[in-house]
Design brief:
Blueprint: H1 2-25, H2 31-88, H3 95-104, E1 106-118, H4 120-125, E2 132-145, H5 146-150, E3 175-180, E4 187-194, H6 195-198, H7 204-211, E5 223-227
Antiparallel strand pairs: 1-2, 3-4, 4-5
Helix pairs in contact: 1-2
Length: 245
């Protein structure tokens, strides 16, 4: 954007210089028409400069508003995936399966406690001298619905695959993948949406610039995502100012 502004400012200065030259060297009969044309050009270039600055300000404001809305849904997807891993020991790359899981699965509430018991093997080995050992006992206390734990009575999880209303072309959805890291076998997942989709109706040059962002206070890369298929992370790629989570 800075280059565009500099070019426009240079053109404005050049036009002003031309107006000055016309005022000194052009015959009086032609001056009024030429002056009107050149001053109109100056105002037009000034408008372009203002629009390029204000246009980017509006773009950044709209971008952040849309990102915050999309992030709230990505957090729901992440929470559902983490619950899925807690219960099944793996993630899922299918939204239908994830929704079915939320509807039917339950968390097991357990309690761990230490206890001491007779070690029969050592007792026999030491000729009947009573020998004990420490063990951990895990008691099952209750079962709690995953749906109630994560969403209560809110049915929003049933449409978690869809982008928020008003963002992206009609019918736009998140991409969801799951699997394991090849080198460690650790379960991973990734939910994402391209910035092109989130900002589909915005200035293409500004969108292209946004996709190349690499900074601590921006959403790095070409998409907004949570989790990763190439590393063991379950956080999102957005800065803290875009989410309280």
């Amino acid at each position: 954007m800075l280059k565009v502004i500099l070019v426009v400012v240079a053109l404005i200065l050049l036009t002003i210089g031309i107006v000055w030259l016309i005022d000194r060297f052009v015959p009086k009969k032609l001056k009024p028409v030429l002056n009107i044309v050149l001053w109109a050009l100056i105002f037009f270039l000034g408008y372009l400069t203002f629009d390029s600055v204000y246009g980017e300000i509006k773009f950044n404001k709209l971008k952040e508003e849309r990102y915050k809305t999309v992030i709230s849904k990505l957090i729901d997807i992440r929470d559902a995936e983490l619950a899925h891993r807690t219960v099944t020991k793996k993630f899922t790359g299918n939204f239908d399966d994830l929704i079915k899981f939320i509807d039917t699965a339950k968390f097991i509430i357990t309690q761990r406690r230490d206890s001491t018991v007779i070690d029969e093997e050592l007792t026999a080995r030491f000729g009947g001298v009573e020998t004990t050992k420490d063990i951990v006992i895990i008691d099952t206390l209750d079962f709690v619905s995953v749906r109630d734990s994560l969403f209560g009575d809110d049915p929003r999880y049933k449409t978690m695959m869809n982008l928020p209303e008003g963002i992206g072309p009609a019918g736009s959805k998140f991409t969801l993948n799951a699997g394991k890291l090849e080198d460690t076998g650790i379960a991973v997942f990734e939910a994402s949406v391209d910035k092109d989709i989130i900002l589909h109706d915005q200035n293409k040059n500004l969108v292209a610039k946004e996709k190349e962002v690499m900074s601590v206070d921006g959403v790095n890369g070409p998409k907004l995502q949570v989790g990763s298929m190439i590393e063991d992370v379950t956080k999102g790629n957005w800065p803290k100012n875009l989410s309280k989570d």
